[in-house]
């Protein structure tokens, strides 16, 4: 059984409208040459200025590749014809495609296909790894897709409230991920946590601070480390599993404050609970 699925995508913007035969010749013949497999047409459809073609390799040499081609016709004289190509295979394309000497996988496929779409504006995407337990593709808060270089998954679990992961990364150290969205990395103290604290402008000396959320412990830790710290800091977060995971795997971020035996002291208190309900009870 395959351990993952790889998807490879190429888009072309063309000044002409290639026919079904041209699309087949331009895309399928190069894949047959590179893989040594033969492809058969599974489905074709033409409706409202769009052509859709799907092909499957015959798997006679153990190489299982599915290819989807779509042509979107020009909306106007000044517009481009759009062609999208999606190739999908179990496991790694590196094991299926015979790479050109001196070229990596992407360059091999690019070289084989681009010459068949002259005067085009191509966009090539790296192979995307799918159907794996801990995806490296994460959403940012502004809905961008970012691939992180995971070196090791340290923690992966689902609490009552969300999916929680902590991973080692090449670029950012350990990274907390909540529901497949980047949350906080070890390198975020200055650019993120201190920005939230409005440092160095804000003076916290003698003040009482309330943190709503903050289960990673970063704000609590940085407030306590100030030369002139607040009088008292209260933190309320609903998900204790986040606290426990960060305490174990991100101690440089949270300090000692998420330990169960250290969640309350002379200058701080951490409450596991609903921050909204806490506020309502205070009013």
Automatic annotation (TrEMBL):
The keyword Transferase applies. It comes from Tigriopus californicus (Marine copepod). Residues 134-283 form the PABS domain. GO terms for biological process: spermine biosynthetic process. The keyword Transferase applies. This is PABS domain-containing protein. Belongs to the spermidine/spermine synthase family. Pfam families: Spermine_synt_N, Spermine_synth. One of its GO terms (molecular function) is spermine synthase activity. CDD domains: AdoMet_MTases (cd02440). Keywords: Polyamine biosynthesis, Transferase.
